[in-house]
Design goal:
Radius of gyration: 16 Å
Distance between the termini: 31 Å
Strand order of the largest sheet: 1-2
Helix content: 25-40%
Number of helices: 2
Strand content: 5-15%
């Protein structure tokens, strides 16, 4: 895994409803490396998390298409990330 300058951030997803929390981080992963060819998750017994890879260059559109095709429930933090990327494309810094 490569070092990034994004760091990490501890967030509360629903601070007014519960004590659920999330740690958000970003990492670059070399998907061509042998060690990353067949990654395995280390989930707890009650966790059901599936991993799907989508291209980042058009992530917002690909994510909308994926959700429509798979009829799946999307985590709100993923949607906010996609909206942020789309916002940055539409209103680039000057």
């Amino acid at each position: 895994m490569a070092e990034t300058d994004f760091g990490s951030c501890f967030t509360c997803t629903d601070p007014w409803k519960s004590d659920d929390n999330t740690t958000v981080f970003m990492a670059e992963v070399d998907l061509d490396a042998e060690v990353n060819a067949h990654p395995e998750q280390n989930l707890e017994g009650d966790e059901n998390i599936k991993v799907f890879m989508l291209p980042l260059d058009n992530f917002f559109e690909e994510l909308k298409k994926f959700v429509a095709e798979k009829h799946c429930l999307l985590d709100g933090t993923v949607w906010m990330f996609a909206l942020g990327m789309q916002f940055a494309k539409r209103f680039p810094a000057k």
